[in-house]
Design brief:
The structure holds two protein chains of two kinds.
Chain A (H helix, E strand, L loop, with lengths): L12 E6 L2 E6 L4 H7 L23 E6 L2 E6 L9 E4 L3 H17 L4 H9 L24 H9 L6 E3 L6 E3 L14 H5 L17 H22 L10 H7 L21 H7 L19 E5 L11 E4 L3 H6 L9 H14 L3 H16 L5 H4 L9 H13 L4 H4 L3 H12 L3 H7 L2 E2 L2 E2 L9 H8 L13 H6 L6 H21 L4 H4 L16 H15 L5 H21 L20 H6 L1 H12 L8 H27 L9 H7 L4 H14 L3
Parallel strand pairs in A: 1-5
Antiparallel strand pairs in A: 1-2, 3-4, 3-5, 6-7, 8-9, 10-11
Chain B lengths: L8 H13 L3 E6 L2 H5 L2 H14 L6 E6 L11 E4 L3 E3 L7 H10 L9 E2 L6 E2 L6 H4 L17 H6 L4 H9 L2 H11 L11 H15 L4 E6 L8 H8 L1 H15 L3 E7 L3 H16 L15 E7 L8 H8 L23 E5 H13 L1 H5 L2 E3 L8 E3 L1 E8 L5 E6 L4 H8 L9 E6 L5 E4 L9 H6 L8 E6 L4 H15 L5 H18 L5 H17 L3 H5 L2 H9 L1 H9 L14 E3 L8 H5 L5 E2 L7 E2 L9 H5 L5 E3 L1
Helix pairs in contact in B: 7-11, 7-14, 8-9, 8-11, 10-11, 10-12, 11-14, 18-19, 19-20, 22-23
Classes of the chains: A alpha+beta, B alpha/beta.
């Protein structure tokens, strides 16, 4: 998540002088890093920025002077804690460095990593023949990078050093292939000599080296940056809870509000205490984001597993928000229990959360009562009732049967059977195209309103998540900009679906220098990686436009499919008003200052002396008009008609103007007079 | 006796003394590892059986003690109160001791100690030169206390210093006494213990992390057994020292890292800890005060490098025992990133005396004047294990500053078989060899370092003139080559290279260039290694090059081994002194010595494997090496 980088505590600066170049570094910086900052390169063999320094090869040995006393240290792991001078080319430094390189050369005379350094620094092979002399060019030089990569990057400890002294070697336990090793390849990527090799018999990529290069870059970022940017590896997606609350985006009480005083009870530090599996849990081999989390030995208090120890797979952010704040539940145990039973019963936690939130609001609004719910007190915060509802759903009993049909059906049933006001139900029923909303409040981001409601599969956030770009960073000020984002990002993310890739490594953990690029939201550094991934895999050189076009064909085809299923026109791209703005007086008044200001500044309506219903109506009129404007702009950008139908020309441009496709759109186009 | 509190500690000791006073005397049987392997347990059991048979069990009490120290003479029995010293006992000797000495009142003369120099019998232990020149602090209770009885320990004053501290001293005052004593770490590097503890206190204040105290009992030097013997002899002294250290730095948790190869020490330590815990001298509310502290044991698997502090802590944390850089010290961030005080067994055993009698009394012993700075000298005593070609093999404790000559000749009794002293190797495998010219060296931390060796943990291996110094250097280098963890290049590759080069020299394949390369490699190892194992590993080579360069040159230039050790460079020859006794011919494994009875024998050089057995067995010194 961009913009959430935590700033480290202020540490005092220390001035160091390296070969005469003065530079200031934070206390604790390694001498190697300080030298780099000063523009001085110190040779290394066993050091790599992605793993902890180890101090094994000793090639970076450097003479320093601290408080008038000279000594030799290894730059890679020497922490600068007081002013010092370093001499990377003094006689002493050079002599020791040469000596170390000469010892390596004696054993591994042909390894390029060793030879190049030895030649550069004038090291000669010694006057004796090393008993373990190894002529191979890809010999293991015992630098230990692979061991550290396995432990620190992959969070495994599958390979390690075995033996002592001359017998030291890298191996898996007992020298046998380990079942735990997923073949993620991190050890091979980091190996400076090629001693560890990857044999890909299954995928047969055209250019494995090219894929590896970018794959390793991603892996490194995960190791180095995740802790500061996201904590995906430590907490998982649930790290978002407090961030969303801080930006008034955490859905609370069926999306009425975006924050809650009890949020700290379900924030990431709480989940850290539950998630005890300190092992990588990724979706596929080699993913070092490993955001999947699990809670062990959880004991449910209800249902068929009551009192037994179970494993809860999660919780994800969407589950915490959907089955927590959105239904007013701030008890982490209840959230975990709902999480567990949803998984056990095969029910989606987002749909369950959003549907239950809707039922709860209807209960509190008086549309439902305990008679109608079969005794369930469906008030916000009643975790026990939510759990009972869930068990009923699984058994096909009681009120669970009604809620289990989803928000779209509930709206109909509550109006027809329980006398609910259809307009009110439409406003607060958080679904589009029959699918329940995902767990973000989209009221203050017009682009996100579109991102949700226009998504082909229904209001799911994986097509476009534009809230920060639009609402926080104000990067999409015009309809055109918003339309461009609603073209690019859904197409880009569709491509992940086509490739079978996960979206999270693309823009949750971002390159350190991402902000310096003109369009940081697209994460250009990673886009470059994906382009190389495609090329390395297929041998076909592509541009980002080619990638977008690949998706566009599929995306338009899906739109046509929607159309055939009766849900592909403009009316199906509109969300409930709760997704666009305050529905109730209570909602408006909770953020009156914000809405009054918008009325004054954006709508040109003076809220002074007006009643809340009057102000609500004025704001609503404005926001609904804005949304229609957005639809027009996006349709235009996508090459669709005002009713949201892909034109024949669009289909032709994309090369999908097959007769049986054209056959679906033509009647709609004719109706609009656009054919 | 259940929980011991501040008030009744003395009483427990007094009661134990009163109990012993009811006996006519005590029979102190040494059950240190050396004597045990020589049969001390059967001596103990047989003695008890004999007492019973003679209905003497109410009059005489058999007390198994830890190491007496005079290992060369084991098994050992000391009869108290007179302090009569019996040596090299077998079970059959005991009946005479019981009948003639205990019942008859006359010590058994033939079983008493005979002074090697004068040939005179010395009945009383205190009169034996081996003991006379020693000064005991760490080993204050050796040969007296029963290591398996806390009451026995208390009767000798153990835990008295802890009581004193908990009764009337603030932690800072305990620390001040240790600083005043000037004691430097007995584990090898000689870092002042008081400064170490002080840094720990500062680190705790700065980081707020709970500190840990650790006892390093991973003694791994060949020929060294100081720490093992201290634990086997007086485990409560070590526990008391650790309690005092914990009190001074504010630790609640302590560890003893001890190698599994020390089964007897481990057993006695575990027993001592269990007893201490039972009586409230370890655990919650020690001696009934608010001070709580407990100790856990970590068993090492016997890697030499795990004696290195950072490797030891890695091993304690369950990781591979290899060192890390010490740019951040253990007192700041050691075990589990907590401020950690690590001292070795001997250091801990000294602490109770320092706190009990005051740091100044300790500082008065030893070399230099440590009143201004602990770096100005070496205060107190040092325990050495004296081994090699020396007559009185054993464990000795002497004041710092004593001359090497006094240790080797006065206490150690000189070289076996009247041969010439050649060198003494101190400081463990990565120490150095000190030649005869330096026999008057005053032994302390700094003098040993200046002489190219080091104190180390206190091993002393004495070598006679039949020792080849190149071969010795190769022996230690090979030991270190196998024990290097292999993490850093200079240590791993350097030791392989140095071993290879020394091998070539001992085979007569050396060249002057190779000698240069050898020295160059040693310098890189000394300067560029990650830990002290690698940095000191060249010491055996550098010190022998410094004092015995001629021997290296003889190997290289003349292709000769002056000491007659290096097999590729020597030939055995029988001289005219041969009486034709035939012993060598019978013992020769190659059966390549022939000769008629009472006539000169001849060695068939083609089949000779130069094992040297003929030379060793010849009583007439007729076998010569050339």
């Amino acid at each position: 998540m961009s913009g959430t980088t935590t700033s480290p505590d202020k540490v005092p600066a220390v001035e160091v002088e390296i070969d005469g170049h003065k530079v200031e570094v934070p206390e604790g910086t390694t001498l190697l890093a300080a030298a780099r900052k000063a523009g001085v390169r110190i040779p290394t063999l066993c050091s790599h920025p992605a793993v902890e320094p180890y101090g094994a090869c000793r090639v970076c040995i450097t003479e320093i002077e601290v408080r008038g006393r000279k000594r030799l240290v290894t730059a890679c792991n020497y922490p600068v804690r007081e002013p010092l001078k370093a001499f990377t080319e003094s006689d002493e430094t050079r002599q020791q460095r040469r000596g170390v390189l000469s010892l390596m050369l004696a054993r591994w005379p042909n390894v390029p990593a060793v030879r190049v350094l030895a030649e550069k620094h004038g090291a000669k092979p010694p006057a004796y023949r090393h008993p373990l002399r190894n002529e191979a060019t890809d010999a293991c030089i015992l630098c230990g990078l692979c061991v550290r990569a396995c432990s620190e990057m992959a969070w495994e400890d599958i390979i390690a050093f075995a033996g002592r002294g001359a017998g030291r070697r890298v191996m898996m336990p007992f020298g046998e292939p380990s079942e735990r090793c997923t073949g993620c390849g991190t050890c091979a990527y980091i190996c400076p000599t090629g001693a560890i090799k990857v044999h890909d018999e299954q995928n047969r990529p055209v250019d494995p080296a090219r894929i590896r290069k970018y794959g390793f870059r991603l892996t490194q970022e995960m190791t180095l940056l995740d802790d500061q940017q996201c904590q995906m590896r430590r907490v998982g997606t649930a790290h978002l809870v407090e961030i969303m609350d801080a930006y008034d985006l955490l859905p609370t009480h069926n999306y009425k509000f975006g924050k809650h005083p009890d949020t700290p009870k379900i924030a990431s530090h709480v989940w850290k205490t539950f998630v005890r599996q300190n092992v990588p849990d990724g979706c596929w081999a080699g993913c070092q984001m490993s955001c999947a989390k699990a809670v062990e030995d959880f004991v449910p208090r209800t249902g068929p597993y009551q009192g037994q120890k179970v494993l809860v797979d999660g919780p994800e952010y969407e589950t915490v928000a959907g089955c927590g704040s959105n239904i007013g539940v701030f008890d982490p145990h209840d959230i975990l229990e709902i999480n567990f039973y949803c998984d056990t019963y095969g029910i989606d936690t987002i749909s369950f959360g959003t549907a239950t939130a809707f039922a709860m609001e209807c209960f509190e609004a008086g549309i439902l009562d305990t008679e109608k719910t079969g005794g369930l007190e469906l008030r916000f915060g009643n975790g026990t009732a939510a759990l009972e509802l869930l068990h009923q759903m699984s058994r096909g009993e009681g009120f669970g049967v009604i809620v289990g049909q989803g928000v779209a059906e509930m709206k109909r049933i509550f109006a027809e059977k329980f006398g609910g006001d259809p307009a009110f139900l439409r406003d607060i029923g958080m679904e589009v195209k029959g699918l329940e909303y995902s767990e973000y409040v989209s009221k203050e981001s017009l682009a996100q309103q579109g991102g949700y409601a226009m998504a082909l599969k229904g209001p799911q956030h994986d097509e476009a998540w534009l809230i920060f770009m639009d609402m926080v960073n104000k990067q999409l000020p015009t309809f055109e900009k918003k339309a461009e984002a609603l073209h690019y990002f859904p197409m880009w993310r569709t491509w992940f679906g086509l490739m079978g890739l996960c979206k999270l490594p693309w823009n949750d953990v971002e390159p350190e220098d991402n902000a310096k690029y003109p369009e940081p939201n697209k994460v250009p550094g990673h886009v470059e990686g994906y382009i190389n991934f495609w090329a390395g895999m297929t041998g076909q050189e592509v541009t980002i436009d080619d990638i977008i076009r690949m998706s566009e064909r599929v995306y338009n085809f899906q739109r046509v499919f929607n159309l055939r299923m009766g849900k592909g026109t403009r009316e199906w791209d509109r969300g409930p008003y709760r997704a666009m703005g305050p529905v109730t007086v209570e909602e408006y008044e909770s953020r009156a200052e914000r809405y009054d200001k918008q009325l004054r500044e954006l709508v040109g309506y003076d809220p002074a002396g007006k009643s809340t219903p009057e102000k609500l109506a004025a704001l609503r009129k404005y926001r609904e008009e804005q949304y229609e404007g957005l639809l027009d702009a996006v349709y235009k950008r996508r090459g669709w008609t005002r009713n949201g139908i892909p034109t024949i020309e669009t289909l032709r441009n994309l090369g999908i103007d097959y007769p049986w496709v054209v056959e679906v759109v033509r009647p709609w186009l004719e109706k609009e007079g656009a054919a | 006796m259940t929980r011991i509190e501040l008030e009744n500690l003395e009483e427990v000791g007094r009661k134990h003394r009163e109990k012993l006073a009811r006996y006519e005397g005590l029979l102190l049987v040494c059950t240190g590892t050396g004597c045990v392997s020589a049969g001390a347990f059967s001596i103990r059991d047989e003695l008890r059986a004999l007492l019973e048979r003679h209905k003497l069990q109410k009059k005489w009490l058999v007390v198994p003690t830890g190491c007496n120290g005079f290992c060369a003479m084991g098994p050992i029995l000391v009869v108290q109160p007179a302090g009569i010293f019996y040596q090299k006992l077998g079970p059959k000797d005991l009946a005479r001791i019981v009948e003639e000495h205990l019942l008859g009142g006359k010590p058994v003369r033939s079983l008493l100690h005979k002074d090697a120099a004068s040939g005179e019998v010395v009945p009383r232990m205190a009169d034996i030169p081996f003991f006379a020149k020693q000064q005991l602090i760490a080993l204050r209770n050796k040969g007296l206390v029963d290591p398996e009885s806390i009451a026995s320990a208390i009767s000798f004053g153990t835990y008295g210093a802890l009581r004193k501290a908990l009764q009337g001293m603030k932690p800072a005052e305990v620390l001040a006494e240790v600083k005043r004593s000037g004691i430097r770490g007995r584990g090898g590097a000689g870092f002042p213990t008081g400064l170490k503890w002080e840094s720990c206190v500062e680190a705790v204040a700065r980081t707020g992390k709970p500190p840990v105290v650790v006892c390093n009992a991973d003694e791994g030097d060949p020929g060294a057994f100081m720490d093992r013997s201290i634990i086997e002899t007086d485990p409560h002294a070590v526990l008391e020292g650790m309690c005092l250290g914990a009190y001074a730095v504010g630790a609640r948790e302590g560890f003893v890292y001890i190698r599994k190869e020390y089964p007897l020490a481990l057993e006695r330590l575990e027993k001592a800890m269990a007893e201490a815990r039972k009586h409230g001298l370890l655990g919650e509310r020690i001696l009934g005060t608010h001070f709580s502290f407990d100790i856990r044991i970590h068993r090492g698997a016997g890697a030499f490098v795990c004696g290195e502090s950072t490797a030891l802590m890695a091993s304690m944390e369950g990781r591979v025992g290899e060192p890390r850089a010490k740019y951040v010290h253990n007192v700041e961030s050691g075990y589990q990133g907590r401020p950690t005080v690590l001292n070795n067994v001997e250091t801990w055993a000294n602490i109770p005396v320092i706190v009990g009698k005051g740091g100044a009394a300790f500082a008065a012993i030893g070399s230099g004047d440590v009143s201004q700075s602990p770096w100005n000298g070496s205060s107190g005593t040092k325990v050495f294990s004296l081994v090699g070609n020396i007559r009185n093999t054993g464990l000795v404790e002497v004041p710092m500053g004593i001359r090497l000559r006094e240790i080797i000749f006065d206490i150690g009794g000189g070289i076996h078989g009247g041969r010439k002293f050649k060198a003494v190797q101190t400081g463990g495998p990565s120490g150095g060899c000190i030649p005869a010219e330096l026999l008057d060296l005053e032994v302390d931390f700094d003098n040993l370092t200046k002489a190219g060796s080091m104190m180390g943990s206190g091993g002393m291996i004495v070598m006679d003139d039949r020792t080849c110094m190149v071969d010795v250097a190769k022996y230690f280098v090979d030991f270190l080559k196998d024990e290097s963890c292999g993490k850093c290049t200079p240590c791993r590759e350097g030791l392989i290279g140095v071993s290879e080069m020394l091998g070539r020299i001992t085979r007569g394949e050396g060249t002057p260039e190779l000698l240069d390369e050898l020295e160059r490699t040693c310098r890189v190892m000394a300067s560029a290694s990650l830990c002290q194992l690698g940095a000191t590993a060249p010491n055996p080579v550098l010190s022998t090059l410094r004092y015995f360069r001629d021997e290296y040159l003889a190997h290289i230039e003349k292709r000769k081994c002056p000491a007659g050790v290096c097999k590729e460079l020597i030939r055995y020859q029988i001289t005219k002194a041969c009486t034709g006794c035939g012993v060598c011919a019978r013992q020769c494994p190659q059966k390549c010595i022939t000769g008629e009875k009472k006539k000169l024998h001849v060695i068939d050089r083609k089949n000779c494997i130069r094992c040297g057995i003929c030379r060793d067995v010849c009583k007439f010194d007729a076998v010569r090496v050339s």
